[in-house]
Batch of 4 targets.
Target 1
Amino acid sequence: MQRSNHAPLAKTASQSLHRRSRALLLFALLSLSVLVLAVQARAAEKIIKSHGISTFGELKYGPDFKHFDYVNPDAPKGGTFSTWGFGTFDSLTPYILKGQAAQLSSIFFESLMVGDDDEPDAMYGLVAKSIEYPENRQWAIFNMRPEAKFSDGTPVTAADVVFSFNILVEKGRPSFRVTLSDFEKVEALGPNRVKFTFKRGANTRELPMTAAGLPIFSKAYYKDRDFAKSTLEPPLGSGPYVLDKVEPGKTVSYKRRDDYWGKNLPVNVGRWNFDKLAVEYYSDYTAAFEGFKGGSYNYREEFSSKVWGTAYDFPALKDGYVIKEQIPDRNPSGTQGFWFNLRRDKFKDPRVREALGMAFNFEWSNQALFYGIYSRTDSFWENSNLQATGMPSPAELALLDPLRANLPDSVFTKPAFSPAVSKPEQLDRKTLRKAGKLMDAAGWKVVNGVRQNAKGEKFEIEILNDSPAFERIMNPYIENLKRLGIIATLRNVDNAQQTEREKNFEFDIVTRRYTMSLTPGLELRGMFTSATANIPGSANIMGLANPAIDALVVDVEKAETRADLNVAVKALDRALRSLHIWVPQWYNPYHNIAYLDVFSRPATLPPFSMGEMDFWWYDDAKAARLKAAGAL
């Protein structure tokens, strides 16, 4: 059969049409598949909208709670709560590097959400009524209360929140740049709706809570003011208190706002009961105690074991006008100690640091100086279930094994480090001999009674101190260091000098206490990681820069369950203790407090706070009794 001359053309056109149809069909099917996958992905990405948020998702209080369980919702308002501060101040701006901020000066400012005192890691709506976030916490949207107002009557808006984040990163303390480095952007979605988006790959477990806790500043207020400038001008905030009066370096007080916008919120009911909060400053510990006895202020937490053990016998206490008591502290007891400046070559060798630690005789100090009321600190999470004990568990080893190159062998071969136990006599020759052998091994030999290295450099250290009350503790330590052949001196400075020298790392050894959380996370970056080791004013006072510690901090941040967190913190605690970055001092599992008997408080205190300035109240009947007796 003869073909038509047009047949090939017709076939080609038909094939082309078929191919186009098939391609269109495939494209349609592909588009449909993509659409289905997108819908499925959106369905799988569950969006949580809640009145609160916690690290691991559990909240004690439901959306309709009226107040926290531990407050007295009917607590009366009135009276003054006053306490004391050490040293001086020259600023009311606590979020910048310049100046020394007055105590309580953060009280001007509020945040989107606020924590409570009977949960370790929950937050509930304050300026924000609710929060929205996906299960992976890659972003968080806060729906703000339109009734929130600054103390000048202007509204608190999403634009203020965006401004606050940006100004903290740009002009706040340098450590904010590290803490907030996992934030990708912050944007106002409307006048009362703000969104925080976090970087891909970041550990987002607690980033929404970090965002929720940032202070909120007025964008309009700082339009013609320099945020980074230290000033005693009362700042504009939205909180329950405004400045009452300030005498530079001497006293500062804050008065409760009658027009405070948030006083009836569930998170505030029963709180902020005092009409006035005041701080009286003293440059001398003894003078501060005498001021309390003389009635210059009405509440004191006592940190001197000597004063607590010997000086609370004055007439007002004997007559029952002053109450003295101990309240259990159920928070981790903190990490108080002598901290080495690891930026200095003489402290690079961990054997040197361990030897210097052995020269501090806690057992003698506790008996002779502390009246036996303290226990020795050996953990960064002392007095908590986060403290490492014994040999590392298999779960801890899973985190520690990959980091062997940057950790001492003792982490894997010995129980968690605890300080040497000395005899309860100032000179324990056996312990000092062990310390001397460590110094020898590190290359610091005794030559003519003084430790020297191969270059002939003498081992000299200076301990910085701004508290005369600490001299009686430091001097015996210095004597023991001298017995090791170390040229040790105590450098007494005032509080302002100490603060500036610490900010700029101009010291050999300083005393500091860190307060540790039961749900640690981002704050550990500021304390212990390489990123903050050389940032002026950072909390990493010792200049620790160790890749293993950096990795363990990340493990803590990314823990998805409370059990995982406990393991990661114990591994971190074990590693930190092995490095001998400090000489652990002591702790007291109680708050030692004394106060004029004009206060009342709830019968049962929450586990994580005494709440003395928060939910105690001034008792007019008690005050009348003291006034009638001439004690007020």
Target 2
Amino acid sequence: MLLVDDSEDDALLLVRELKRGGIRPAFTRVDNGPDLFQALQNGRWDLVITDHNMPGFSSEEAIRMTHRQYPDMPVIIVSGTIGEEAAVKAMRAGAQDYIMKDNLSRLIPAINREIRESQIKLAKIQAETTLEHMAYHDSLTDLVNRREFDRRLQEALLDAQTTEHHHALMYLDLDQFKVINDTCGHVAGDEMLKQISMELARHIRPDDTLARLGGDEFGILLLNCDSENAFRLANILCEVVAEYRLVWQGHPFAVSLSVGLVFIDRNSTNTSDLLVQADLACYAAKDRGRNNVQVFQSDDKDMQQRQTDMQWTSRIHKALESSQFFLCQQPMLGLQESTRNLVQSEFLVRMRGNDNAILPGAFIPAAERFGLMHRIDRRVVEMAFQYLDRTGLGRADSGTFFINLSGGSLGDSELFQFIKALVSRYRIKPERVCFEITETAAIAHLASTIGFIESVRQDGFRFALDDFGSGMSSFSYLKSLPVDFLKIDGSFVKNMLNDPIDVGIVESCHRIGQAVGLKTIAEFVETPDVQKKLCEMGIDFAQGYGIARPAVVR
């Protein structure tokens, strides 16, 4: 505690009053501006208590000086001479409270209140910092994630296009990694990924970027690196991984590395092409025996064939034209007394394959890459509305049914009119429908997202922010989005009983949701113990295989 008072006796009386109230502060007393400035510079303070009138110094100056260095530092005025008008002026200047010296009964409650509010602010800042870090880093390896890697790749491409600089892109894939997961479980697989990440990081320069792009796939961006050095480094990395052994339960396990290499120069076109080329080269490395490096060559027949294999465009078009998409429905469970009897479920899209259903993870990346996602979204919305009309659930007095929208659809200026036309055709109440979009897509299309949400909510629809916590870069984004539900990213939920960091992130997401009046939904709830923990936290709804598996909509 920092005391600003010209009277040592008054300061000691104040400290004595604090001790009588159970507070034993570590304190320093100053009585002028230079000493206050020095104390603020040299100490870590929780609170400033200042007199109002001192020779050559005032509480207003003390407040101004304190907040210049620490904008959130609580300041309380304790004075024997302050009048009401001066007190109001001081409060406007930033004081949290003013107390008369002849009546210190409010001092202890005021200090406890300010310390408590400071702790709440600190917790919120820590939560925002954690979420911001998670927006750009992989939660398992702490490497840069796909989103941040794409951004850095774009910067490197622009640099190469406007200068004579040359860069290199590597796409790395672990060979036979699935064997580790299948033999030893995901815990062993995760440990291998973390250790290999550290091994790879030791061999790149500080200005280069190593990222986990997903699963057992990594990306490396080498800045100002010629083809000879890039190729040599890629082979070194293959040797490093080949020599690595994971010892798990007394048994050694080994993997190898396949690397696709692309050079970035003035003739490179866009980041999507670069990533596809690196991916193609990596697959060629696998096809040619694994544990080797392949440089992308546009005239390579194997790579051309692989590129053809990657084209989902015709298959998606066919599925749209011949009604090969269908819906599944997954219920949510209310965890609190206020939500226990509420009916909620989510519609999930699938594509009919030759012998089984194709999950969205297989076709959605291609649909997004080739601009077909908005057509799939419209088909999903119409199928969901048809079901709600046929069953009467869309006209019921209660129930909420969630429909996913992609980020690309938010830029579709005709989507809202399309939805309004479906409402009239299928006779459903808009309040029965909640559209949801992932957090990362919402941030990437922030302006169009806000405009779309505001439009649909005016008609009674509700909105949910999905995968919250996976890409949140600032709490201010959430405050800008007028949503009703917050769906906490399941990657933090499924293993939260074994990871205190995941518990902290889930709790932080829930507190942030509560702060802005949103209902929270936890995804990937797979066990009763996780469900119980979420209930204790105050999470409103749970969704996952531990609650109910998706069932085909009939």
Target 3
Amino acid sequence: MGKLTLLSLLTASVAVIPMFAETVHVSTPKSSLILDAVKGEPLKFVYYGSALGDNDIKNITSTGGNTFNAYPVYGLWPEKEAAMSAVHADGNMTLDMAVADVKTMKEANGAEVTTVTMTDKVYPFYIDVNYRTYPGSDVIETWTVTSHDEKKPVKLTRFMSGYLPIRRSDVHVSQLYGSWANEGKVEEAPLPHNLKVIKNKDGARNSHTSHAEVMMSLDGKAQEQTGRVIGAALCYGGNYKLMFDTDDSDYHHFFAGINEENSSYNLKKGEKFETPALALTYSEEGLGGASRNFHKWGRDYRLANGDKLRKVLLNSWEGVYFDINEAGMTQMMKDIADMGGELFVMDDGWFGVKYPRNNDSTSLGDWTVDTTKLPHGIKGLCNTADGLGIKFGIWIEPEMTNSKSELYEKHPEYIVKAPNRDAVEGRGGTQLVLDLANPKVQDLVFNVVDTLMTNYPEIDYIKWDSNAPIMNHGSQYQTADNQSHLYIDYHKGLEKTLQRIREKYPDLTIQACASGGGRANWGILPYFDEFWVSDNTDALQRIYMQWGTSYFFPAIAMASHISASPNHQTNRIVPLKYRTDVAMSGRLGMEIQPKNMTDEEKEQTRKAIADYKKIRPIVQQGDIYRLLSPYDHKGAASLMYVSPDKKDAVYYWWKTEQFVNQQLPRVTMAGLDPDKLYTVTELNRVDNEPLPYEGKTFTGRFLMSNGLEMPLSHNVDWNKRNDYASRVLMLHSN
């Protein structure tokens, strides 16, 4: 159980406990963070790594390592990078912070927070450095709260969430990068000299081109199952900056927080400026161990409804796009119900009266049903879904409007726009971003959801989209001297709105979609149940994108859909078996027009959905083990999920290249109980004959030492042969 202690001091049951000793020990079951908190001196970082006992804690400062300020500030010795910088009202640009107090507090969910309060030695300026741990979790969250009692506002010009010195050796950093329809790709490289920066300035979404999460492998090139790894994830949905400063010392200096560019913040007297949490995890089981730590923490404490299994759904987008009509929606609902699905989601194109939403150039903000398309309205569709035994969901994009909309005609002052400038318009040549810093806009966005749910309480699922960045810098709501607050206050307003929605509708399933995978981050996910990994549904490319995304996010949060062939983004022709096997490694869904499927394909999908329901608890709640990376270019990719009790597992294998006489590696498994006996059953089988090990039993030890051979092609009739092969195996022990 994660706990916070001060040396051997046990945490008492009272809410707040002052700490008077100098050493602060923030601990999780397998890790320790040691700080030196001497009153009147700067807070010092001492150690972060594997869990320490009292003896090692007592002697840790004698090991010869350097100590650095745990939250370095700018001004004295300004040649070093700093986590915070500020300009006092008198123009002074320096900070000189010293420890004033240390307290620990227990929260309602069992988490414990240690807060080190630092005060400036001259000015009434205060920084609380916070550390939170959760029961049973190997993740530590750190963030700061800044305030002051100076007579006039203090300008904050940098405000990182956290800092971590990392001893130089052969440190490699794994990060995610990409673009629209190509998100979540993995790049790994050794840390360079000088400065490495990973940042985002989109304003509204932040995970298309890069991610606010990294893995730091301390023993050279990253390994999946072995080696020391520190994982870091900034829990923020807005502009961020991750920096590695490698100076002339023996250390890399890692900073993570809100991107301060064009975002200086004028902090008023008595106001509190709270940074987003930086989540840190330490593992000696390689990248996989760090991923499993993030996944468990996320499901248990960060992801909305992380303990509830997700439904199998059909989304209408790639099936009909904007061509929404009652007959078509009814047909799609009947098809997904017949194939064993549990939910139908009607995507874009269902709304707009004065401006019907027939394409992406009109109507956002006018969330009124178009009864020419849906004569019986949403209520009629909900009734149809209920009669078919499935749930109903709907698409919205409530943070946006179009210049061709009734909302914009009535309230042009609601949009993000620079003073004395024309509005910059995006998607469809008309899309505009609403200014969520404005409380009236926050009410408007809340009411979009609240009105839908009040009128149609049967709605089970909302797909929440965000298809534009902040396209110009300016707020019609903010005062002239606070225009630099735009990016930060947008996300404060969004979070306030989402909190209101979740307080009223805690069980509603909400997907974060943002031009595909633009909102895959732990800052957004406390209010969302899942995210759309990418607008690219091509199964082969999804292997790469979902592989990288799994570094930080669990399968339960990754929407993965069976789509049409040829694929709508890549035009690749991929057999249904392969598309299904890839989609089943995340939250299974469909993004297809079922009436275009053959009866044989529908039957194959019906069996696949039934099989997925058998393994759903393992996939969505189990531990991931990535076995063979597609980025290693060995012709195949493989991973598996293992139930927490190690009783059951699901093994995935996909061929990623096709050559004559190719030799592919035999993949050994991981995460199993070596002494358990596992019976092998293939799911989604299309072969005329079962695999030779079908129904056979093997020890976990054998499977982890030797694995099983995967045939390079499927034993099917000649007319069904193709250049793809994939396997899904279920392992069950009695």
Target 4
Amino acid sequence: MFSSRLFWKIYSVTTAITLISAGIVIWILAFRQSEIILNMIDERLQNSATLLTEQMEIAFRQPPTPELQEQLRTLQEETGTRITLIDNSGRVLGDSAEDYQTMDLHNNRQEVREAMHDGTGFAQRYSNTLNRNLRYFSKRVGSEENPLGVVRVSLPVERVDTQVTSYQQVIWLTATICSLLSLIFTYIMVGRLLKPLQEITEAAEAMASGKLRQEVDINSRDELGLLGETFNTMSRTSASRFEELQQKSRELAENSDRLAAVLGSMIEGVIAIDSDHRIIFVNRAAQKLLSLPVSDVTGRIYLELIRIPQVHELVNTVLTGYCQTSLEFKLNPSQATVAAFGTPLPGENAPGVLIVLHDISDLRQLENMRTEFFSNVSHELKTPLAAIQAYSETLLEGALEDPDHNRKFVHNILQHSERLHDLILDMMQISRIESGTDLFEIHEVHLEHAINVCMAALAPQAESKRIELTYECQTDNPLVLADAEGLRTIFENLIDNAIKYTPEGGQVTVRSYLQTSDEIEEVVIEVTDTGLGIPREYQSRVFERFYRVDKARSRELGGTGLGLSIVKHLSQVFGAGLELESELHRGSTFRVTFPLVFTDQKA
């Protein structure tokens, strides 16, 4: 309470008012008491003069005598006042305090003149005879027409001042005691009044610091008690509302985090832009797709970061038309195809636009591949069918009777039909692998045995082209999980392609060895040829169906264009990795990696 500025303000004002009021009261009482005392003295003088006038009338008719003087002194002792007898000429006939014979004429004294004229007279002045201030009262003796003289009584002013001072001291003492009692009472009352306010202030400061649930204990039934109850109600209500807001804030934060996590994990890019063209949200997919900086994106104008005219057009269309729209464009320099969908954010007056970006490069590539696939299938089927039809028509038109050519035509028809048959079988195999209808018996297979079977089957083909076909085995008969027939199909296609595309006198090498990758032991099989090689720009597409680097040479060699595609699909089914390394005019290496089950040690 002593540190309360409000307490000292109220107490200081109250103290000042009390002291000023006490001073005014003291001054009024002192002034009034002085008047009362003077009036009492004047009344006493007047009574004394009235009594003496009746007693001393005879003295004005006789000459002054010593007995008169003695009588005046006796009366002074009885009344306590100085008595002076003055005749109508101003001569002093007697005085109770001094020798009347030595006294001057008093006809010029104010109180004497007034008494002679009006019957009574008052005055206060310094007496040269007594050397002190006196208060005088005079009364005329005799009638107005025939005055005999004046009886004058007086008292020293010091006696009046003494009485006044005595009364003032009592007044000051009483006022001081009352003022002190009033200040003490004021101190107690102000303290009692301010204590609840101080409690409310401390509770309010605690609420301001975050501790909302505060209550004050005010037992009075006045306005302060009502204020305390209102404050407690407000505190409970505020705490309850704040807890509700905190709960809603946590729910909103959790929902926001979930939404950010969902949008962040989407493969589609998401960008939210407000009506001022500022970015308010962007997920990782959009940052990666549009090559935006990882940080310092939110709040910036999107035109500073996204310099794509199609995006600008999309944003302006949605903000001005407040409708959904979409468009498609290519990114530079990646040449990725992106489909953008724009929709207005919920709210009035188009508060913003939400853009969803889809990378449809793979979809467009698949569409192109599908188009090429149907074109290639049509072409691959059409070529042998056209040849069979042409040879058949030639035979029917007479060549059947020509012994020099009929067998050749029939042989060509058989060759093209076999090619057509192989093509259909390969297509059916790829279709079964992709659809999952071709069930494989996955079990442990001896890898070296499968390679040796393929080597033996393709050795005559290599010998016919004078190609050296070798197998460098650096493993101990490893076992892998695969289907035996599917495993042989992989190696037959790889070795067959290597022999086909290696010129005469070349070399085809099959190599197997073990390697450890990420603490997993694997077995690697490489098929290396010394053919023409594959240019780098075509290496990513050689595993596509019907894709040929040199189409004319591929058909001349009798390939269906599906062998490497079958190898890729079978490798995926068996959990094997497939890689290609090739350099133009230096040959190619196809590498297949299987997880190793274990190794059978040879005796």
